[in-house]
Design the sequence.
């Protein structure tokens, strides 16, 4: 049995596939102990098959939250002597050019916890100086006395020759601490980004490692109780029969990576830096799969949960980036190109010193949660605002399994307004209803800016894209955002509140590896000022690159086999990171005999110009190995006979749209059949989410039971 778990700020979503039926369960997250909420949901879903081998695929926010809150390990940084302060010096970039009072976040490792080793490797990879045994002994003694909980090791040019790093790593591992080594995690140039990435990994490793080990142990103890379970809790692989699935060992915990694929819990514990955007990645994967099934070439993934909203533009397959900054720290491992803002259903409202209403990024989370959840929350949130506006229904939340308290929300909204200083009351809303309207409007503005960042600011016209919205709160805002940006349409998939968990469930096992090379690509200028790459020298160059790729791939395949994966069906993607000679940044293109032309075209799309007469430099080789996991049956068209949409109406109620209350039907989504069409205003309620359809929109249920929202033509 495979269960996907997506831990959010308010709810933990658990999803499994029983035959062709998707079963979902939402439970409140337990931020003080994330594993407890996960185990509660998994145990309830797995109760039908007690004792069966159980694989959990987990999208986790533990690494993200640890980094944002600076609650990680006490790290000892070991680097080449003379470069101890590199992590603090960083780059000369000034994100806020005109801010004279800007203050940078302090480095993860204070000066007293940084050590330099007398060693040196040349830029060509020659070992110029080796660390002496005496220096290594002093280093280990100093670190053991420092109270360090984890070690980050990053030497200059170790991506060219890791001999010195290996020698020092062997000595440091005798301390019994987690050791993050740069040539193992990121064998690429740019020493600042490499040092930062390895330091983040060391900062997260103890906490995430302990969390995953405990999760695996508790899953085994509570759910199965058989002999294989004890082996799994101890990190051993159960014996496998002939009929076992060939893609992966059974009965393990897997973790979603930021790059859009899953990996084993053991590897995630060693390389937690690859999980910093674990949760949002599942939604992007699910969006890409749905867009492919529906034949949509251009889509925007819109995931609004309890704490944040994550958006990603898809013009083809999901794109990854190696230039991520989280909590002011550069991280250079592959990450899906997701943009996040602190606007979710649990985002808290406040009034700033100038009297302006702000919403987020602070969130009520699961504890105390929004006011209407009756779990101790007392500050207004976006969810509470929707309840006052009638868009959430108190009796149809989680299929009626949890009743929302509208009276308490109205009372707390009034108290919030009365507590405002006298000089701010004139420009503030006067009633709870007015405050609710403003909260939704401010939240929409934040999400609209996020959508513009990934579309307009990157040269894309949002009118060419379809918004695929999900998350517990996504359907409440999607139509408003589509109207503001002129989007081509809106699709609300089935089970939107657990859509990210579905993406995690059906994600493939992925291993990303890279290697810096820094080679000028051979070629010769022609009379037309372009460059010819049809020379024999270029052919030899291609062959040498193929040999390098094969070496990288064989090493990665060996690691996968050590983790008990069978690699007969592995898919391998080769890419080259290239730039014009003299440039500081590169673009990735597929490896083929025509890669120079592909690069020029990519450069034209990205920057609006290309220079075919300039020589090219190959920066790094990038390989992605993908092992397919079990997928659901093909998304079949609904075989149910069409029913009139009116049969799905359970009640009528007043709902606020376009500056007034409208008498609005509430539809139960499970009773809507393919082909049903109705006009707004309307509310569609289901177990995991609610969709609001304004008067200017109409909704059609397609053959796959997705809701398609289309703005009425004027």
Sequence:
């Amino acid at each position: 049995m495979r269960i996907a778990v997506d831990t959010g700020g308010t709810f933990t979503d658990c999803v499994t596939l029983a035959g062709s039926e998707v079963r979902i369960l939402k439970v409140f997250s337990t931020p003080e102990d994330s594993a407890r909420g996960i185990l509660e949901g998994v145990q309830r879903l797995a109760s039908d098959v007690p004792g069966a081998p159980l694989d959990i695929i987990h999208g986790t926010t533990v690494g993200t939250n640890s980094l944002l809150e600076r609650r990680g390990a006490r790290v000892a940084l070991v680097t080449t002597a003379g470069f101890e302060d590199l992590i603090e010096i960083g780059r000369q970039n000034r994100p806020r050019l005109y801010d004279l009072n800007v203050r940078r976040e302090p480095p993860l490792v204070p000066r007293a916890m940084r050590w330099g080793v007398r060693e040196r490797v040349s830029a060509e990879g020659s070992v110029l100086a080796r660390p002496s045994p005496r220096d290594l002994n002093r280093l280990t003694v100093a670190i053991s006395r420092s109270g360090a909980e984890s070690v980050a090791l990053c030497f200059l040019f170790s991506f060219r020759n890791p001999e010195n790093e290996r020698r020092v790593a062997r000595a440091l591992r005798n301390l019994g601490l987690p050791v993050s080594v740069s040539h193992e995690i990121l064998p690429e140039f740019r020493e600042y980004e490499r040092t930062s990435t390895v330091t983040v990994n060391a900062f997260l490793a103890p906490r995430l490692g302990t969390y995953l080990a405990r999760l695996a142990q508790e899953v085994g103890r509570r759910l199965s109780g058989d002999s294989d379970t004890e082996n799994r809790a101890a990190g051993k692989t159960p014996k496998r029969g002939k009929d076992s699935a060939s893609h992966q060992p059974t009965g393990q915990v897997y973790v979603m990576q930021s790059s859009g694929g899953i990996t084993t819990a053991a590897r995630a514990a060693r390389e937690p830096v690859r999980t910093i955007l674990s949760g949002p990645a599942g939604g992007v994967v699910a969006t890409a799969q749905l867009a492919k099934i529906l034949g949509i070439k251009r889509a925007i993934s819109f995931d609004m949960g309890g704490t944040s909203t994550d958006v990603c533009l898809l013009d083809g397959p999901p794109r990854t980036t190696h230039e991520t900054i989280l909590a002011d720290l550069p991280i250079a491992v592959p990450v899906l190109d997701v943009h996040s803002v602190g606007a979710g259903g649990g985002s808290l409202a406040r009034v700033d010193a100038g009297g302006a209403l702000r919403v987020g990024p602070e969130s009520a989370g699961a504890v105390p949660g929004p006011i209407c959840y009756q779990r101790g929350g007392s500050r207004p949130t976006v969810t509470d605002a929707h309840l006052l506006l009638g868009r959430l229904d108190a009796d149809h939340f989680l299929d009626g399994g949890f009743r929302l308290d509208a009276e308490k929300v109205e009372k707390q909204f009034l108290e919030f307004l009365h507590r405002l200083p006298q000089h701010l009351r004139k420009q503030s809303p006067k009633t709870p209803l007015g405050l609710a309207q403003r909260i939704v409007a401010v939240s929409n503005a934040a999400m609209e800016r996020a959508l513009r960042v990934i579309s307009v600011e990157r040269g894309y016209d949002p009118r060419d894209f379809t918004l695929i919205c999900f998350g517990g709160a996504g359907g409440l805002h999607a139509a408003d955002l589509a109207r503001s940006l002129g989007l081509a349409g809106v699709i609300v998939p089935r089970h939107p509140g657990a859509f990210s968990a579905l993406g995690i469930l059906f994600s493939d096992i992925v291993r990303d590896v890279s290697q810096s090379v820094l080679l000028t690509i051979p070629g010769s200028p022609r009379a037309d000022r372009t460059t010819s790459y049809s020379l024999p020298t270029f052919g030899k160059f291609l062959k040498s690159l193929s040999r390098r790729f094969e070496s990288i791939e064989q090493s990665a395949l060996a690691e996968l086999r050590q983790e008990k994966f069978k690699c007969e069906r592995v898919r391998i993607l080769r890419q080259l990171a290239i730039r014009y000679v003299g440039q500081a940044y590169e673009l990735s293109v597929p490896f083929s005999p025509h890669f120079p032309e592909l690069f020029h075209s990519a450069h034209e799309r990205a920057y609006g110009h290309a220079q075919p007469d300039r020589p090219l430099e190959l920066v790094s080789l990038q390989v992605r190995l993908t092992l397919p996991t079990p997928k659901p049956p093909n998304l079949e068209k609904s075989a149910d006979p069409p029913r009139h949409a009116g049969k799905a109406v359970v009640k009528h109620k007043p709902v606020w749209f376009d500056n007034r209350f409208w008498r609005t039907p509430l539809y139960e989504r499970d009773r809507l059949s393919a082909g049903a069409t109705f006009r707004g205003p309307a509310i569609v309620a289901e177990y995991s989410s609610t969709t609001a359809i304004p008067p200017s929109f109409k909704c059609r249920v397609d053959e796959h039971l997705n809701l398609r929202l289309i703005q009425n033509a004027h």
The first helix runs from residue 34 to 46.
